[in-house]
Amino acid sequence: MDKINDDEADMLPRLSYRDKEKEDKIVAEALFGKTTQTYNMKKNENLTNLVDKHHSPMVVRKFTKWGFPVYIGIISDNDIDDFDQFIVTYIEDRKSVLKEDSLQKLRNLAGDLTEALTEHYNKTEGVAVVFYWDKCFISSLFGDLMTHAACKQEFYFLLNMSTGV
Q: Quick check: 107 and 129 in contact, CB under 8 A?
């Protein structure tokens, strides 16, 4: 079969939905001169599990034990029953940083806590650590909470809502 241009491809006869796979193969052969791999999938199936995954809700916790609010958000498939204990233990072990008047050390603590959470909860998709210290907002984000606008928006909406409660 000879290659055809785009105008000729638009003029190919349209087939019914049942013949859609057949039509795709005909068009591919006409345009590229070869067949492409087809997937035998049902109508509502996906190649990845991203679209139909709905079982990792975000959790946002507020801690006020150290004299300023600390907000931690996490999206994880792990069991997070030890979440509060892990956060409190981690920050208590580094309490000397909180006593120093160092913005940089507090930034480092936020980043270190983010890394520690991703290591402790190995099925973590996103982490957010936020300190509001001395009229300064410090945040450290990882994964979905850093790269996906919808996740960030949800986290900051919940953070904004919780500060008014």
A: no
The helix/strand/coil state of 5 is: coil
Confidence of residue 47 (pLDDT cuts 50, 70, 90): very low
Burial class (CB in 10 A: 0-12, 13-18, 19+), 45: exposed
The answer to whether residues 66 and 93 touch, using CB atoms and an 8 Å cutoff, is no
Q: Please state the pTM of the whole predicted model.
A: 0.64
Q: Please report the domains of the chain, with CATH numbers, ordered by start residue.
A: 1-47 (no CATH), 58-163 (3.30.1130.10)
- How many CA atoms lie within 13 Å of 134's alpha carbon, on the beta-carbon side? 8
Question: ∠ CA 30-36-37 to the nearest 5 degrees?
Answer: 155
Residue 45 CA to residue 122 CA, distance in Å, equals 28
The predicted-structure confidence for 116-135, as pLDDT tens digits, reads as follows: 999 999 988 999 999 988 88
